[in-house]
Here is the input.
Amino acid sequence: MRTERNLTRLDRVFARLDREPERPAHIDVPKMSRHRVALLAGTLAFYLAIVWLVVITSWLVRLDWQVMFFRPYQQWAEIHWFVDYYVVLGQRGPTAVMIASWLAWRSWRQHTLRPMLTLATSLLLLNITVGAAKIGMGRLGPHYATTIGSNEMGLGGDIFPSGHTANAVVTWGILAYLASTPRARRWLSALSAVTSLGVGMATVYLGTHWLSDVLLGWVAGLLVLLALPWFEPLIARAEDQIFDLRDRWRARGSRTAPAPLSPVETPVRLKPRPASQNETAARAAAPRAPVYLAPGPHTTRSERTPVTPVGSLRPPQTDRTARGTASTARPLTGG
Here is the structure.
C-alpha cells in the first residue's frame, strides 16, 4: 500500500522558492503616522540629551571613565576571540554585502526595486547624519584619551556616536522595516535589537568606544529608521524612473535590431520568355552538328539502320534486315 509522504517545513520552503517570481498585489509601505512622529520626536530629544550630558561633562562622562578603567577585555579575556568576530556584524562593508544580497533576491522575486532603494537611502542618511556628528564633535576614544575625567570633545576624534552601533541598528533593522507580515516584523525587530545591542557592548568591551558613544549610536540608528517613511515617495519616483529608463532602452534595442526573415513562400512557376527575332536568327545561322552526332528521336536498336562511314573498307550489307521482322526463307541448294 502506497502512502504519501508528509511535507516538512523545508519541503514547503523549497516549494515556495520554485514558484515563478511575481509582484505582490499590495506592498505594505510604512506611513509617517502620528505615533511614529511622536516616537521620532522623543528619540530626537533623547539624542540631544545625551549630547548635552557629554558636553557638560556630567555623570555620564564619569561613568564612561569608570567603565574604561574597569577594562572588560582584561576581566573576561577568555571571550576576547568571540567578541573580535562578533563585532564584525556592525562593520559597514560585511553587513552591507549580506543585507544587500538578501534584498536583491527579494527585489527579483517581487519585481520591485523598493528593497534595494530603501537600503541605499538608509545607508546614505546614516553616512550623512552620523558622519557629520562625528566630525562636528571630534571626540577622542578611550585609547587616545588625554585628560582623566574630561569629555575629550573637540580634539579631532571621530568616535561619537559609535558608527558600528548605528550601522548595526540600520542594516539589521531594515529587514524589520521591509517585512511583509506583522509576525515577521516582530521577530526581525527583536533580532536587530539583540544584534545591535551586542555590537555596542562589544565595542565597549574592546575599549574602542565610550559607553555614551554606544548610547548615541543606538539612538542615531533608530532616528534613521523612524525617518524612512518620509522618503518613501522619493523611493517610489526613483523606482518608476529606473523602470521607464529600462523600457526605453529595450525599445531602442528592438528598433536597432535587424528585421526578422519573412517565412518561405510557395515557389511560383515561371513561364519561358519568348525568344526575340535576333535570337531566332542567331539560332538558324549557327552550324549544325554532324548527323551521327546530333541527337535525334530515340528509337529501339532493332529499328536503327546501319550506317557505313565514308571511306570505310567494309562493303555495305544490303541484305541485312532489322531484328524482329520475319526473314525471307532462302531456297536450299543441293551441295
Notes: The chain has twelve helices and no strands. Residues 33 and 229 are 9 Å apart (CA to CA). Confidence is low (pLDDT under 50) at residues 17-22, 291-295, 324-335.
